[in-house]
Model the fold of this input.
Amino acid sequence: MKRIKYYALSAVLLLCGTGLTTSCSVDDNPVAPSPEEQEAIDNRNELVRHIDSDAKTMADMFDVESLNVAAQAYEQLSAMMEGSKDFMTKMKSLLSTGSMRKAVAGISPVTSGSELAKMGYLMYITVDNSGYGIQVVFDGKGNCRLSTAKNLEFIFPADIKGIGYTLFKVIIKDGGEYYQTVSEANIPNVKGVACVNRFPRSLTMTLTGFIDNKEQTLSETVIGLELPLNENSAFVSLDAKSFNITGQQHSYSASGKESTLDFRLNSNNGNMTLGYGYACDGTSIVDCVALMRLKQQGGFIGQISADALNVADIKTVAIRILNDLTLSGTISDGDTFSQNFASAIRNRQPVSSPDALAGIVESLNQSSDFQLSCRQMTKAEVMKFCVTEKDKQYIIEPALKDLNSDKFIPISEIVDAQTMENFNKPFSMSFTPGGNAAGSALNVYSALIKMMPLND
Done:
């Protein structure tokens, strides 16, 4: 599956990571600054002080190992779900056939005066999309085998950086609370029968891996869904254009650290808030939020697809580190910004000519306005992007305004080397771990929802 657009948040964080590290220059012939100039100097000093402290804390606490394992495992599982020759057909047929067989066996008359009776139904069946005992085994070659199990289980091989090629298992359980939809049952030659579809409000996904000849728990993810209920109705609509999805993933590393990833997706008639937060051993490290406008309208199931989210028009982005440093931005052209950010990420490695990067930087600066701030600053600093050269190699870097002119200078010319190293440590270890982990988990959740015969 395509990766859900949490990359839009984590890519900003990745590219701008060094943009949160600055230092001040010294003037050999100082002139008394004006009040405005003094405010700028004080703000820069305050920013540097906070950055230095936060960078050290972040470098010590940020643990991407466990996030990476979960992200890679779920990403490879979702790819197998999509890439398997017959997985979705087999799974949906099995779920639909099993549910319908049980439902038809339990066909019941509608209670007089009930909501179903007022809809004109005489009989009803209940299709229960919960508690399935199915085990799915992928062989890594596009094939899958289905059999009975205590829960819904997926067993699959995956090649995980730092672990290697081994077997992983995802066990999925529902949380015990359910939504219901209603439609006319598709029973040949029978009319007036309501089909009540029952599906879980939350799912728990436990990821384990077979490492060093034993099964180890690597992460636990709980994903919850909130759909609007009509007044005095027991049923929800899958055409709902407003909903909330929240998730929390606990991951465990070999070092003994516990990482917690909170992610959320709120949609209100096509206006979507997408975000995630990362904490390590109880300390909030990063929190990212983007406001977007969906181009592909539709109901709940359509909106949570990766295809719908990946073409959403980003409007604003806000990233906060250690509840202190804040990078916020407004985006006038979401398509241009997203395309050029993808290009900027690809071009983080030095290139031999600045020409290919100049257009990217110009488009980034024209389509967005970013500001950088921290607690106790009186005014945020404007941040832009620029092309920098070192030893005839060129890269894209964030840039801050020179305190002595109207020019913007690259971070590499004003940054403290140790602070930069501290701040870059998490990003040098992995590409956007939080965004990947949240997006990969939601991809699996989206696939599970689509497997349920809710529209059949």
